[in-house]
Amino acid sequence: MNFDLTPDQAALRERARRFASEELAPVAEEYDQREEFPHEQFCRAAQLGFFGLSVPREYGGLGADTVSYALVIEELSRAMPAFGVPVSVHNSLVCYPIAKLGTPEQRQRYLPRLATGELLGGFSLTEPESGSDASAMQTLARKVDGGWIIDGHKTFVSMGATAGIFLVMAVTDPDAKRSRSISAFLIERGVPGFSSGQRVSKMGMRATDTTELLFREVYVPDANLLGNRGDGFKVALSSLDSGRIGIGAQALGIAQAALDTSAAYALSRKQFGEPIIKFQAVQFKLSDMATEIEAARLLLMEAAALKDAGQPMTTQAAMAKLMASQAAVRAADSAVQIHGGYGYLKGNTAERLYRDAKVTEIYEGTSEIQRIVIAESLIAEPATYPLPAFDVSAPVSG
Ligand SMILES: Cc1cc2nc3c(=O)[nH]c(=O)nc-3n(C[C@H](O)[C@H](O)[C@H](O)COP(=O)(O)OP(=O)(O)OC[C@H]3O[C@@H](n4cnc5c(N)ncnc54)[C@H](O)[C@@H]3O)c2cc1C
């Protein structure tokens, strides 16, 4: 499906596809088993500009549109889902908000280094007691002369052991109304009082590290406040809209890989004297996978195109993430089933995809939270062509 890609979008997808198939796919299994991030491949991806997708050209980035960003994340994730995590978080949850909301000084200070990958960005919202409910956050930023003192404990930070700068949400105005109580801070690794905890061991996406972040009396100057005081929710929610397109693209890459590996295996594996792809039960699984992938891709492209057109896309981004992550989980499940007992073995791509797929239904808003976002839009905007509502007070006829 080409979705009328421009020559630039098609070229960038080709660049990502070639890098992913030649340099990521061959090492994906090895780094998953070693629970290690592939640093050499990181440097190559940085040379190819993938860490500067969301950075405007004037700061050394590619200045790519959202459609291109989604295409690149899908290609990288198709070969190695765990590689899609840092590229997505870095671009959509760090570079994009700095480019959009940063002061000229913040843009100049951070964007050139983020564009080259010299500085890797991480995003830190979640806390032990505050997951889906960001308003339960306890990390506190206290105003002092010229800056802020931050105290708190964050958890589940992707690339928390590796990233050099974090966009961190903290409560600045506990007595303000919920939407104005939080602010966003740019915090570089190495400032006194800041540390990252042990990496946690995960079911999937094992090549990326996930850690806690600890803040003990960390001084952050006023210059590192992103947006205005009290804008934290606005910063987080607008970044997460783009982030959800990234996670949707990651899920799509996983689903596509599950289909590719399943179709190839079904053609080569023989039982009862013929390739198992001859059996309708196997064909139907492949058909469902292909159909869900196509539907997810269209939703994703719609959300990305709306963002590029400057249109509201919160609902479409939520739908795209919901649909793509469901497609990924179902496709990976079918992939294991089509591989039979061999799908259950370590070293089989289907087994790794099965583990990697699940988290796409959890991070950057669980599927339940996406459904809440979608339902809110239905409540706010009833159908444009309303059918009469059923009148419960009318007498029921025969
Ligand atoms: C591998 C990994 C990487 C991550 N990376 C990052 C990162 O880089 N930065 C970051 O800030 N966070 C990150 N996260 C955290 C992630 O975003 C949260 O785990 C997620 O938002 C859910 O929060 P929770 O785990 O506390 O679950 P909870 O919020 O406790 O939810 C538990 C269950 O209750 C459901 N639930 C909660 N509220 C409602 C409701 N109102 N209605 C219906 N159901 C509800 C949820 O959908 C879920 O099924 C990461 C998580 C993982 C696993």
Description:
It is a single chain. With 398 residues, this protein is of the alpha+beta class. The chain has three domains: 7-120, Acyl-CoA dehydrogenase/oxidase, N-terminal domain (Butyryl-Coa Dehydrogenase, subunit A, domain 1); 123-230, Butyryl-CoA Dehydrogenase, subunit A, domain 2, CATH 2.40.110; 233-380, Butyryl-CoA Dehydrogenase, subunit A, domain 3 (Up-down Bundle). It is built from eleven helices and ten strands. The protein has helices spanning 7-24, 28-34, 39-47, 66-79, 81-101, 104-116, 232-268, 280-308, 314-338, 349-358, 367-380, and strands at 121-124, 140-144, 147-158, 165-171, 182-188, 194-199, 210-221, 225-226, 270-271, 274-275. The strands form three sheets. The chain has a four-stranded mixed β-sheet. A hairpin with a 2-residue loop joins β9 and β10. α1 (7-24) packs parallel to α4 (66-79). It is globular. The mean pLDDT is 96. Flavin-adenine dinucleotide (FAD) binds at residues 89, 123-126, 131-132, 156-158, 202, 205, 210, 359, 362-364, 366, 368-369.
